[in-house]
Write a structure and sequence with these properties.
The protein has about 220 residues and is of the alpha+beta class. The chain has 8 helices and 9 strands. The chain has a single domain, classed as DNA mismatch repair MutH/Restriction endonuclease, type II (ECO RV Endonuclease, Chain A, 3-Layer(aba) Sandwich), CATH 3.40.600. The two termini are about 25 Å apart. The mean pLDDT is about 90.
């Protein structure tokens, strides 16, 4: 299934409470298991449930927790950085990066999680395709964010007292820690040492949600 097809299937059911969409919803499980929403979305798209992630032929799915008005309650995870840290330090051209491949074509689905899970609903489904002219402003922002973050990470490594990377922010995108014990240090071949004592990841900040809903939502 392609993103455009998925968007077309989600749009008509936006605003309908999960209790009406899904007869067998388990409220307690929906709260505990964040992956449950992904399974519900698969059902809404007419896909067969399996143990893997949602897999679209041409891009990525990004969901996040919002209130009923669409105000984000969380940032949006993009991808971890451990395997590409030297790509970032050396400022590999944005269009050649793992990050770009993860965000160049994606479907953002806001999910209202106010109240009981039976009252939750899909708010909107926005298809972002950076190859199209209307998304050029986002391309400019994300490219600038990428290079700014690369420079911030390098500066942290070379000037921080601990020699480690730290939270780095752009306009929409940030890098911050994402790990659980036992932690997973990040090793850089360029520096020949660990440049973090735990894993980090790219996220879209909440401003990303506000901006894309204002420009492309509806």
């Amino acid at each position: 299934m392609k993103l455009k097809e998925a968007q077309a299937k989600i749009k008509p059911i936006c605003g309908i409470p999960f209790g009406e969409l899904f007869s067998d919803i388990d409220p307690e499980m929906a709260i505990i298991n964040k992956g449950k929403i992904g399974q519900m979305l698969e059902l809404a798209l007419g896909k067969k449930l399996d143990s893997g992630n949602l897999d679209f032929e041409d891009g990525e799915l990004k969901t996040n927790k919002c209130d009923k008005t669409g105000k984000p309650k969380e940032t949006v995870f993009i991808t971890q950085i451990a395997s590409v840290i030297d790509e970032l330090i050396s400022e590999r051209p944005f269009e050649e990066t793992h990050l770009y491949n993860k965000i160049k074509n994606m479907l953002y689905v806001a999910v209202s999680k106010d109240g009981n899970p039976r009252e939750w609903f899909f708010i909107d489904a926005i298809h972002i395709d950076l190859s199209k002219p209307e998304f050029a402003p986002l391309m400019d922002i994300w490219r600038e964010d990428y290079y700014s973050i690369c420079r911030q990470l390098k500066e942290h490594i070379e000037t921080s007292p601990d020699g480690f990377i730290h939270t780095s922010n752009g306009t929409h995108i940030q890098v911050r820690s994402k790990d659980s014990k036992p932690y997973h240090p990040i090793y850089s071949d360029i520096y020949g040492r660990n440049i973090s004592n735990k894993n980090h990841a790219f996220y879209f900040q909440k401003k990303f949600v506000y901006d894309i809903r204002k420009a492309y939502g509806g």
